[in-house]
C-alpha cells in the first residue's frame, strides 16, 4: 500500500526542514510547510514523553500554543511511517513508531521500568496475555487436589464445634472501648 504514496512521501521529505521551535505565525494553515512543521512539532512532543505516546485528546489542548492545524488526526493518519494511531474504546492514542520495536518500547527510562514492575507485582495481566488470575489459580489447585487420587486416606478434614460466645450481625463495636484501648497503649 505504501508504494502508491512513495512519490508523495519522497516529495514531502525533500521539502526544507522547518524547526518545531521556530515561530509559525507566518505560515499559511493547510500549506505543505505548515503540515511539515506540525509533524516536526508532534514528533518532538512525542519524543519528550516517557512512553513515546500520548492520547490525542491531550495533544489538542496545546493546539493553539503549538500553532497546530484543526484536524491533527488527519496528519497522524497521513504519515503512518512516523506515527501509529491506536483506538482503545473511544479514545485514540498516537505512538512514535521509531520509539518502538513491535509492541516493546526500545529505550525504557527507570520510571517506565518501575511502572512495569509495579504492574507485574499487582497482578496486572494486560490484554491478550495468558497469565491466570488469582481465582483461576485457586480453581486449578482445587482441581489438582481432587484429581490427584493419591490414595492417602490418613488425611481427614473435620469440623469442631465452638461453644464460646458467638458473634452475631447485631453486635456492634463500641468506639469508646477501642479508644480506651489505644489510650492504655499510649500510657505504657
Feature tags:
8 helices; 43% helix; PORR_fam; 188 residues; two-stranded antiparallel ribbon; three-stranded antiparallel sheet; mainly alpha
Task: Explain what you see.
- The chain is mostly helical and 188 residues long.
- The chain has a domain at 2-104.
- The protein has 8 helices and 5 strands; from the N terminus they run ααβαααββββααα.
- It has helices at 6-14, 32-48, 56-60, 63-66, 72-78, 110-121, 134-147, 175-187; strands at 53-55, 83-88, 91-96, 100-101, 104-105.
- The longest helix has 17 residues, at 32-48.
- It is elongated.
Tell me the number of helical segments per DSSP (H or I, 4 or more residues long).
8
Oligomer: single chain
* Strands side by side in the biggest sheet: 1-3-2
Radius of gyration: 30 Å
CA-based shape: elongated
Strand content: 5-15%
- In which range does the helix fraction lie? 40-55%
**What's the N-to-C terminus distance?**
79 Å
Order of helices and strands: HHEHHHEEEEHHH
Q: What is the total tally of β strands?
A: 5
**Low-pLDDT windows of residues:** none
- Helix/sheet category: mainly alpha
Mean pLDDT over all positions:
73
Largest sheet: 3 strands, antiparallel
Précis, in short:
This protein is 43% helix and 10% strand.
Write the layout of secondary structure elements.
Elements: H1 6-14, H2 32-48, E1 53-55, H3 56-60, H4 63-66, H5 72-78, E2 83-88, E3 91-96, E4 100-101, E5 104-105, H6 110-121, H7 134-147, H8 175-187
Antiparallel strand pairs: 1-3, 2-3, 4-5
Organism: Noccaea caerulescens (Alpine penny-cress)
Domain PORR: 4-123
Pfam family, one: PORR
Amino acid at each position: 500500500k505504501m508504494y502508491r504514496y512513495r512519490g508523495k512521501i519522497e516529495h514531502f521529505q525533500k521539502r526544507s526542514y522547518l524547526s518545531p521551535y521556530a515561530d509559525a505565525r507566518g505560515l499559511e494553515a493547510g500549506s505543505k510547510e505548515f503540515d511539515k512543521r506540525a509533524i516536526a512539532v508532534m514528533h518532538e512532543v512525542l519524543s519528550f514523553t516517557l512512553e513515546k505516546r500520548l492520547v490525542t485528546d491531550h495533544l489538542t489542548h496545546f493546539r493553539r500554543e503549538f500553532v497546530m492545524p484543526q484536524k491533527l488526526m488527519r496528519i497522524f493518519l497521513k504519515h503512518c511511517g512516523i506515527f501509529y494511531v491506536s483506538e482503545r474504546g473511544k479514545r485514540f492514542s498516537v505512538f512514535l513508531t521509531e520509539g518502538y520495536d513491535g509492541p516493546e518500547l526500545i529505550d525504557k527510562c527507570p520510571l517506565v521500568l518501575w511502572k512495569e514492575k509495579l504492574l507485574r507485582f499487582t497482578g496486572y495481566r494486560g490484554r491478550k496475555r495468558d497469565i491466570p488470575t488469582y481465582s483461576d489459580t485457586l480453581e486449578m489447585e482445587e482441581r489438582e487436589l481432587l484429581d490427584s487420587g493419591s490414595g492417602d486416606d490418613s488425611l481427614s478434614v473435620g469440623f469442631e464445634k465452638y461453644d464460646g460466645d458467638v458473634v452475631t450481625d447485631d453486635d456492634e463495636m463500641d468506639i469508646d472501648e477501642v479508644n480506651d484501648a489505644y489510650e492504655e497503649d499510649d500510657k505504657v
